[in-house]
């Protein structure tokens, strides 16, 4: 075991929304006051359990994945493509888009974020800033990483997209761009919503994207505490503080999701990412992660230097152990399928967006993408083509191509979007490609333009 010390007394308290109230109850003087407070706590717990857990708990299940971050090889997996609720792992995507906005100069670390009445009303855990107050981008980022602050996440979503619901659509679109084929985001924080789902494989893809695309900002995920306006705010990623070589990244918990964890560990040149979803307790979740890392870290590649693999999800199809397992993957009745959600909704930000991150994509362009003959069977003449991703459905692949073309600029003007089905049954995927480049240089130029927009891109000679 690479654990640095034994579990402390707080190991099982990760992100419980009622933990602060419980502590306040215990500190009250007088048995009568403590008893009254604890009765209120019990009522709150029962209310949340009845309102949230019952319809959603069926989705929570044990899932795990250990990935070699250098090669993209899956070292171990269990139910890696089964849908689960992400809980506060959702904030990893909120942070990814925040880092993207910082990189593009849309915001700075000191940009003020107004705390709306809606954001301030988000349930714990939270920074507790009152409606009408402000926090900086820096405070919001540290709040999300260390405290897992729901109010900070909602406020950030509103800042970047004008509304949290609009931001959630952007989050889902970015997930597709990164190769997260089965994830749907509905809010910026991870608070319970039956439609918000992900998989262990998709979360590993997001972790790799954070490490690869924003290495400097990624280091913030190792922060154990920060000072927020005169008080020290401490984190609760207990395993990170005790497991040698672990430098991130995020915990998550709701009654519906169980205890979730994404971790990254470095051992010399070896680099692995681990995901555990649906743990029964924080202790058992952390123990499972530690056991998996102990077993598989030594099997990771020690060559390849510091380079990390490109977006994992875009390179490998969605794998399910059997057709029976695929049919058993639970999907909330009121939840749109990820591909349908992406194709049916505009990827543009709300009209009143405060800080638009990317050039808007018109809804007509997304919807009409499926009506273009060349995106299904026909290819135009040309010696070269490029592939940007693979998706679980033709609609999702076409939507991704439409978005990429709107962002790629001049190098993609004459290129034609093209989807190609590969595999059979539950393993069938659709390659998302652009074809019709007259020369290798033209294809390279298109790839360069897309990579600047954080897309993966693979150059291919056209043998068809």
TrEMBL record:
Matches recorded under PROSITE patterns: SPOR (PS51724)
Record keyword Protease present: yes
Annotated InterPro entries: Beta-lactam/transpept-like (IPR012338), Peptidase_S11 (IPR018044), Peptidase_S11_N (IPR001967), SPOR-like_dom (IPR007730), SPOR-like_sf (IPR036680)
One Pfam family this sequence matches: SPOR
Stretch forming the signal peptide: none
Segments forming domain SPOR: 378-464
One GO MF term: serine-type D-Ala-D-Ala carboxypeptidase activity
Alphabetic keyword roster: Carboxypeptidase, Cell shape, Cell wall biogenesis/degradation, Hydrolase, Peptidoglycan synthesis, Protease, Signal
GO BP, sorted A to Z: cell wall organization; peptidoglycan biosynthetic process; proteolysis; regulation of cell shape
SUPFAM superfamilies reported for this sequence: beta-lactamase/transpeptidase-like, Sporulation related repeat
Enzymatic class: hydrolase
PANTHER family (UniProt xref): D-ALANYL-D-ALANINE CARBOXYPEPTIDASE (PTHR21581), TRAFFICKING PROTEIN PARTICLE COMPLEX SUBUNIT 12 (PTHR21581:SF6)
UniProt family annotation: Belongs to the peptidase S11 family.
Protein name per Swiss-Prot or TrEMBL: D-alanyl-D-alanine carboxypeptidase (Penicillin-binding protein)
Native source species: Rhizobium johnstonii (strain DSM 114642 / LMG 32736 / 3841)
């Amino acid at each position: 075991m690479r654990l640095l010390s034994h579990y402390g007394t707080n190991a099982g308290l990760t992100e419980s929304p009622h933990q602060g109230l419980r502590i306040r109850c215990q500190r009250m003087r007088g048995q009568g006051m403590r008893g009254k407070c604890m009765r209120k706590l019990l009522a709150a717990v029962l209310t949340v359990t009845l309102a949230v857990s019952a319809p959603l708990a069926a989705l929570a299940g044990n899932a795990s994945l250990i990935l070699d971050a250098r090669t993209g090889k899956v070292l171990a997996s269990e139910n890696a493509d089964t849908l689960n609720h992400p809980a506060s792992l959702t904030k990893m995507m909120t942070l990814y888009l925040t880092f993207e906005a910082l990189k593009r100069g849309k915001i700075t670390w000191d940009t003020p974020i107004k705390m709306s009445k809606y954001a301030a009303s988000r349930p714990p855990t939270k920074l507790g800033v009152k409606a009408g107050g402000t926090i900086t981008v820096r405070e919001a980022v540290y709040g999300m990483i260390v405290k897992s602050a729901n109010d900070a996440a909602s406020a950030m979503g509103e800042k970047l997209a004008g509304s949290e619901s609009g931001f959630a659509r952007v989050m889902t679109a970015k997930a597709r761009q990164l190769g997260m084929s089965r994830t749907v985001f509905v809010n910026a924080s991870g608070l319970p919503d039956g439609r918000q789902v992900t998989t262990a494989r998709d979360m590993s893809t997001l972790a790799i994207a954070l490490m690869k695309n924003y290495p400097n900002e990624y280091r913030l995920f190792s922060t154990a505490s920060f000072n927020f306006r005169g008080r020290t705010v401490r984190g609760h990623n207990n395993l990170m503080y005790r497991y040698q070589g672990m430098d991130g990244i995020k915990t998550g918990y709701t009654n519906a999701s169980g205890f979730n964890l994404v971790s990254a560990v470095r051992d010399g040149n070896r680099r692995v990412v681990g995901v555990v979803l649906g743990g029964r307790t924080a202790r058992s979740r952390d123990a499972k992660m530690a056991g998996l890392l102990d077993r598989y870290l030594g099997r990771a590649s020690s060559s390849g230097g510091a380079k990390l693999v490109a977006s994992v999800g875009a390179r490998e199809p969605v794998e399910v152990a059997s057709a029976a397992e695929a049919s058993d993957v639970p999907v909330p009745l009121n939840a749109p399928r990820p591909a349908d959600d992406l194709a049916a909704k505009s990827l543009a930000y709300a009209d009143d967006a405060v800080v638009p991150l990317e050039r808007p994509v018109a809804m007509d362009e997304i919807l009409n993408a499926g009506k273009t003959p060349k995106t299904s069977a026909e290819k135009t003449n040309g010696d070269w083509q490029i592939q940007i991703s693979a998706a679980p459905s033709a609609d999702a692949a076409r939507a991704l191509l439409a978005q990429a073309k709107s962002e790629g600029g001049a190098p993609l003007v004459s290129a034609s979007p093209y989807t190609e089905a590969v595999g059979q049954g539950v393993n069938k995927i659709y390659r998302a490609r652009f074809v019709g480049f007259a020369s290798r240089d033209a294809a390279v130029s298109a790839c360069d333009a897309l990579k600047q927009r954080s897309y993966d891109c693979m150059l291919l000679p056209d043998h068809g």
